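Raw record, unedited: Membrane protein
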Amino acid sequence: MEYVTAVPHPRSEAAAPARSGRRSLAVALLCGALGAAVTLLATRQRWAQGTATVAGGGFPLTAKGSDVTGVPAALAIVGLAALVAVFAVRRAGRLLVAGLLALSGVGVVAAALVAASDGSVLDEKAAQASGDTSATVGALTHTGWPYVAVAGGALILLAGLLALRYGSLWPAMSGRYERGADRPRRRSRPVDPERPEEMWKALDRGEDPTGA
């Protein structure tokens, strides 16, 4: 009679963390890179528009995300750099960089939400266009691009959280060089003084190759 045991195989238990590390690494890289790209794209689009009264007529005004606030774009670049730096450090350093990655995502989300209804930039443009410092923009409307930046920040945040949770299972770029440094150096072969080329070298140095 054969008995079936429910004890898991040791190899399957050892392979499970490796699979989790590979999957989380792929997801984190995708989310981080995509989030940074989406955020940078969103900040270059029109976030707000309105009209200013100039010479009795309406003058259209627009503001891009980078005009309203430069924080999301800057933090997207910081997050992208932190995503790359995660693989260059280990242990506590990796946790710090992963935390910076997550905080970059939080900062993008917060800055984009605050700027989503901001019209101060268009008020400044209206004052410049009309020559009246007290002028304000009229018919102010906002687009959905700030919320696209919010989505990009959320992806960066997700990448940071994955790095905090599974970063210890990810490989490090420095490991390859450390392994290479641990390899023993090849020892040079002993020189045979009776070889013809060695005898000629000895003669060139003024030595007696016969040892007499």
